[in-house]
Design a protein that fits this description.
This protein is α/β, with parallel strands linked by helices. Helix content is 39%, strand content 16%. It contains 11 helices and 14 strands. The longest helix is centred in the middle third of the chain and has 21 residues.
Amino acid sequence: MKILVTGTAGFIGSHTARRLLGRGDTVVGLDSVNDYYDVTLKYGRLAESGIARDAARHGEIAQSAKFPNYRFIQLKLEDRDALTALFEREKFDVVCHLAAQAGVRYSLENPHAYIEANLVGFMNILENCRHHPVRHLVYASSSSVYGLNTAMPFSTSHAVDHPVSLYAATKKANELMAHTYSHLYGLPTTGLRFFTVYGPWGRPDMALFLYTDAILAGRPIAVFNHGNMQRDFTYIDDIVEGVVRVIDRPPAGDPSWDGARPDPASSRAPYRLYNIGNSAPVKLTDFIEAIEQALGKKATRELLPLQPGDVPATYADVSDLTRDTGYRPATDIGEGVRRFVAWYRAYYGR
């Protein structure tokens, strides 16, 4: 298939693109390469797929030096005309939309970035999938949509009407927008609620990266909610395995769907939502101990209150994803953290 993967200078997008290329798909990668965090890391991810930094110029297609079936374009999703021209020229079979303005706390500081990238950008993706029909649109949602929900594990059958960050609200809006297009235009869409993804080439604003850097430098680490946090940490290879399995399975409408007892995860339209996580939450204190063990160095911990926009725990029910695709996460936290630390030491020479 010819697949558009957005966010290929990002963490999940770069890994997903390489996995698809490895199995023989033709991939066009897209990313704005914004400066939300260090662009050197983003260009490093691109280089892993054979896209040289000087070749990744805005609006121009760059050919990979490693994969003959991979090209990349630096483009903002908000650039409606340029995105439309790309769809008209390439005629994609599938769109895997992983680009977004990420980060819960940053959404408190720069809310307009989330409206532009996550709402306007997603609108442009939907319109192009409508007017240049694709077999399947797979897009990234987030565990953040569960907001104030406390019933564990989080299930896609639960209502998610109380987000606690603008980032989460935009992801919930994406799910609603996708259903509208599935209903009105028969566009097959699947949303994936990612749960705390970690691993090599991870984001530097995430806990594993921040903690590793601080511990090696001898700085204290910020432990929020006084360490009383749980996260369903999910290793990147397990995430990508789930994404690829979903790409290959466009949803069909469920004729038994009942509007009197509506299931939020499905519809009569070709629409589906899945959690994609490890389904094994880890205490933050245990996570820190795994990092200390991998580094061979103890952390100095600074205990802090829960941050605005954060939730104290996440826990994914992935039973429907397992039932429908055979997805089974296989990487435990100790092994995943060791792999990240090995990558970090090699990449940064530490």
